[in-house]
Amino acid sequence: MQQRSFEEGVELILAKDTRYDADAYDFLREALDFTQKSLGRADKVRQREGTSTEQGHHVSGQQLLNGIKDFAIQRYGPMTFMMFESWGVKKTDDFGEIVFNMVSEGLLGKTENDSREDFKGVYDFDVAFRQPYLPKVKQSPTPPEQTKDV
Q1: What integer pLDDT is reported at residue 51 of this predicted model?
Q2: How far, in Å, are 63, 96, 111, 128, 132 from residue 8 at the CA level?
Q3: d(CA 93, CA 65)
C-alpha cells in the first residue's frame, strides 16, 4: 500500500467534507508539532525530576487545544479569531472534527481513549482570541459633587 502525502490526504478529506478550509488542516498539523515540542520540553524536565509518564508523542484533545491556543496567539495574535472564522472554525468542537477527519484518512493516529467529545466546548473562542485584544474600557472618575453657595 502506497502512503499518500499530507496534501493528498487533505484533498481526499475536502472532497468529502467542505466545512473547513485546507488551511485549517495545515494549521492543525503545525499546531500539533508545536504542542508536541512544548510537551517534550516539559517531559524532559519531568524525567529529570523523576515524575515523567512515558506516553510517546501522543497528545490528548485537551493538550492539543491548549497548544492550538498558544500557537495561534503566537502566530496570528489579534487576527486569530478572524483567521479561524475564515477557515470555518468557530469553536473547539471544529478542531475535533478536523482531527477525526485526519484520523479517518490516516494522517493522524488515535488511541482507544480519544474521542470527539474531548474537543467539545473546551474554551470559548471569543474569550480566548478576541477579548484579550479589545480596548480596555476606562471608567471616568466620578465628578466631585458640586456645592451650592448659600
Answers
A1: 35
A2: 27, 20, 24, 32, 37
A3: 10
